[in-house]
Amino acid sequence: MSTIQSVAGQTEQHPDVALVERVRAGDLSAYDTLVRKYERQVFRIAQHITQNREDAEDVMQDAFLKAYEKLDQFQGNSKFYTWLVRIAVNESLMRLRKRRTGRMVSIDENIETDEGSVPRDFADWAPNPEQNYTQSQLADILKKTIQGLPQGFRVVFVLRDVDGLSTEETAEALGLSVPAVKSRLLRARLQLRERLSRHFKNRTPAASQPDAAPSGNGVDA
User: Average pLDDT, stretch 149-154?
Assistant: First the structure.
C-alpha cells in the first residue's frame, strides 16, 4: 500500500508538497508562497463562517500561524489546502464560541431554520432573474443569500460549490463523513434555491405582472 502511494507521489506529487518540504528545511519564503496562494480562499471561508470581516482577518492570520507551528503534523496524505481549511474552520468556530458566550457551536450540531430543515415547495424563477438584474447585483444577492444559510450548511456549500473541493476533501476538512457532506450539500442547495426564488418573486416589478381579472367566482384551491 505504502509502495503504491510512494510511486503515485513521485509521478503526481502536488506542488504544495515540495513547498512544505522547503519550509521544513528552513526556507520561509516557501511558506510566504503558500500564504499568498491560499490567503484569499481562507479569508473567504472564515468570513462565511464568522459573518464578520475583522474576525475573518484574525482567523486567517491565526490559521496560517497555527499551520506553520504544526507543519510537522502534515503527513501529505491529503492536499495541504484541505489540511489548512480544517485549521481555518476550527479557528472560525473557536472565534464564534468566544463571541457567543455560554453557547457552544459545532459543525455537527443539528440546525433548525425558520423554513425547516428542507423546504417543501420551490417557486419557479419567473421572470428569469438575469432579465432584471445586472451581474454585480446578482453576485451581491447570491453572496447575501449564502450568508443567510445555516452555518452547518453554509460551510459545506462554500467548500464544495464555491471553493471547488471534492466531496471527499470537504468531508476531511470538516471531519464529517462523505454521506453527511452530501446530505448537507443537498439541503444547502435546496434552501439556497428556495430563498433565491422567494427573493426574485418578491422583487418582481408590479408593472410586469398582468392585470388581474375581477374574481367574481373564486377558483377552488
Answer: 86
Sequence-ordered list of residues with C-beta below 8 angstroms from that of 56, at least 6 positions apart, any chain: 43, 46, 47, 50, 92
Q: Specify the residue for cell string 500500500.
A: 1
Cβ atoms within 10 Å, residue 159: 26
Contact 155, 107 (CB under 8 A): yes
Contacts of 18 (CB under 8 A, 6+ apart): none
Question: Which domains are delineated in the chain?
Answer: 13-99 (1.10.1740.10), 129-205 (1.10.10.10)
Confidence bin at 77 (pLDDT 50/70/90): confident
What is the rounded CA–CA span in Å between residue 162 and residue 158? 5
Comparison of pLDDT for 54 and 107, the residue scoring more: 54
Cell of 55: 474576525
Residue 204 scores a pLDDT above 90: no
Spatial distance between the Cα atoms of 181 and 168, rounded to a whole number of angstroms = 8
pLDDT in tens, 10-32: 546 788 999 999 999 988 889 98
The C-alpha atoms of residue 96 and residue 114 are separated, in whole angstroms, by: 21
